[in-house]
Amino acid sequence: MEWKSLAHLVEDAAERFGEKPLFIFEDKPLSFAEVNRLANRTANALLSLGVTVGTHVGVMLPNGVDFPIVWFALAKLRAVIVPVNINYHDHDLTYILDDSQAEVFIVHADYLDQWNKVRGNLPRVRETLVVGDPAQVQDLTRRMESASETFDSSQAEADDLLNIQYTSGTTGFPKGCMLQQKYWLQIGQIAVDYFVLTPDERNLTAQPFYYMDPQWNTVASLIGGAPLVILPRFSPSNFWGEVIRYNVTVLYLIGTMPFFLLKMPEDPALERGHKLNMILCSGIHPKFHAEFERRWGVPWREAFGMTETGVDLIVPFDDGFSVGTGAMGRPIATKEARVVDTDGNDVPEGGVGELILRGEPMMLGYWNKPEATAEVMKNGWLHTGDLVTKDAKGYFHWQARLKDTIRRAGENISSVEVEGVLMEHPAVKVAAVVPVPDELRGEEVKAYIVLKDGYTKENASPESVLDYARKQLAYFKVPRFIEYADDLPRTPSERVEKHKLVKMKADLRVGSYDAVEKTWR
User: Does position 4 have pLDDT exceeding 60, yes or no?
Assistant: First the structure.
C-alpha cells in the first residue's frame, strides 16, 4: 500500500492524472485535479463549521459527483462519514443518525421533507448543509465558493476511522461497520489488480453511493487512473446502451441486477455491442451463469465479500471451468478462510459449515455495539453467518445463510434455492421466501411473489406457480403459502429485506394462498 491515507491518494492521483476525467456523470466529465480542488474547498467549508477530527457527518445524497467529493473532504479532515440511504423515512432516518451520533447532516434538497419531519428528534445534529438548492441559507455549494482550493491533509492516517457504514440489515436491524481509511485503500488495490485497471480502461457503477460498491470502485479508479462512469440508478432497459455509449470495459454488479437484465427482450446487437472485458458479480446463480456469458458475450466471474470484510473470495479470471458450478472462489492473498462447525472445529472437505475469515481488509467492529462485535469476531476470526462447503480445488461454495434457512419437519431448506426456482417461472419478477411457524412441522415455507407486468393472480395462479416448483424441487421445499405483492422492501443492493416481511403481520398465513387447504386465508 503506497499511500498513507485515502486523502493522500486523492492528492497523488490529481498529480499523476491531472485533467484526465475521473468521474463521468450525465455526460459531464470531472478531472482528477478538479475533484481534488473541489474536495479541498469542501473540506475548508466544513472546517469553518467545526467539522474536524472525529466529527460524525451524515450524508444523504443521490448518485453523482457530490457524494465522493464530500467523502474525500471528510478523509482530508479525518472526520467520519455516515452514508444514509436516500429512501429512508422517519424511522430509518432517525435510527441511523441517532445510532451513529452524527453531529452534521449533509442532505440533498430533494430529501429535505424527510429531514424536516425528524430533525426535532435529533438534537445532536447541530448543523444541516443542503446540496442542490442555492436559495438555501445553509447551501454547501455557496459556502464552497469562498473557500480555498488548498488543504493540508498531511496528518491523515491509514488507521483513521473514515466510514460508519451501515449493513443492509437483511437478517436484523442495521449495524454500523467501522471502516478505516486503509480498508478502502486495500479493497481498491485488490480491484485494480483483478481488473488490471489502467488509464486505458473505463469503469462503471450503477449502485447507489451510500452503498459500499461505488465507494471502492471510486478508490480503484483513483489508483488505476481509469475514469468511473456513474449512472444515476440501475435501469435494465437503459443499461447496455449506457455501457456502449461510455465505452465501459469493466464493471461490478450485485443482487438481482442480472436477473432483471436477463428478463429484458433479447437484443444481440445492443447486448453485444460493448467493449467489456469482464463483469465481476456477487451471487451469480449457477443455473444462469452460462446463459449470462452466452447472451452478453463477456466472462462473468464471482466474488464474495461483506461490508464487514470488504472482499474475501474471488474466482480467478482465467478459470472458465468454474462457470455454472456455483463456486465463490478462493481467498484473496491477504485473507484466510475456514469452514467450521458450531463448536468452531474445521469441517472435512465437502462438509457444510460456517465460513469464517481473517486478514485484511476488515472492519474495526460495529459502532457502539460491542456485544454484536463479540458475536461475530471470535479469536481473531470473523464469523460470516454463511453456510458453505469447500471442494478439492480449494473453492468455496455457498449453501445458505444461518438465519435464512427454513427447518421444515427436520429438513433444512435454503430460501435462496427456492427463490431461484420460483424466479424461473415466466410470470415471476421477484420471489422472496420466508419461514412461517407451524406447530406440526416447526416451520412452513411461504413465498412472496411479485409478478411481471401483464400478469395477475388470476392468469398466474398460485397453483400454476406451485406446479412449476413441484417439478423442480423436492416435495418438502415447495412453498405451502403464496402471497402476491406489488413490490417488496429492499436494501440498497437490491436484496429483499426479509426481516421486514416476517414482521409485517402477526399471522403470516393471513392473505396467503394455502396449498394444503387449497384456499385463500
Answer: yes
172: pLDDT strictly greater than 60: no
State the DSSP H helix or E strand holding residue 328, giving kind and residue range, or none if neither.
strand 327-331
What is the per-residue pLDDT for 410?
65
Summarize the chain as % helix, strand, coil (round to 5). Answer: 30, 25, 40
Sign of CA dihedral 473, 477, 478, 479: negative
Stretch 45-57: mean pLDDT: 97
Query: 199, 225 in Cβ contact below 8 A?
Result: yes
Looking at residues 28-52, what average pLDDT do you find? 97
Instruction: Give the count of beta carbons closer than 10 Å to the beta carbon of residue 492.
Output: 20
What does DSSP assign to residue 496?
A: B
- Whole-angstrom distance, CA of residue 27 vs CA of residue 62: 17
pLDDT at residue 415 is higher than 70: yes
| H helix count then E strand count, the chain | 16, 27
pLDDT in tens, 143-156: 898 999 999 999 99
Do 74 and 127 form a contact (C-beta atoms < 8 A)? no
Q: Which three cell numbers stand for residue 229?
A: 462512469
CA 58, distance to chain mean position in Å, is 18
Instruction: Look at residue 298 in the predicted model and tell me its pLDDT.
Output: 97
Cβ-Cβ contacts under 8 Å for 214 (sequence gap 6 or more): 63, 67, 68, 205, 207, 208, 230
Q: First vs last Cα of the chain: how many Å apart?
A: 59
The amino acid sitting at 164 is I
> Which SS3 state, helix, strand or coil, does residue 255 take?
coil
Q: How many CB atoms lie within 10 A of CB 2?
A: 9
Report which residue type is found at 388.
V
344 class by beta-carbon count within 10 Å (0-12 exposed, 13-18 middle, 19+ buried): middle
Query: Beta partners for 388?
Result: 353, 398
CA 122-125-126 angle, 5° bins: 130
| pLDDT band, residue 237 (cuts 50/70/90) | very high
Q: What is the CA 64 to chain-centroid distance, rounded?
A: 17
User: Residue 222 class from Cβ within 10 Å (0-12 exposed, 13-18 middle, 19+ buried)?
Assistant: buried
Local structure of 124: helix, strand or coil? coil
Pairing of strands 80-83, 56-60: parallel
State the Cα–Cα distance between residues 93 and 105, nearest whole angstrom.
11
Percent of the chain surpassing pLDDT 90: 79
Per DSSP, 519 falls in state E
Q: What is residue 414's predicted lDDT score, i.e. its pLDDT?
A: 76
Helix (H, G, I), strand (E, B) or coil at 375: helix
- Domains in the chain, please, with CATH? 415-520 (3.30.300.30)
- Give me the percent of the chain exceeding a pLDDT of 70: 97
Handedness of CA 505, 510, 513, 518 (dihedral sign): positive
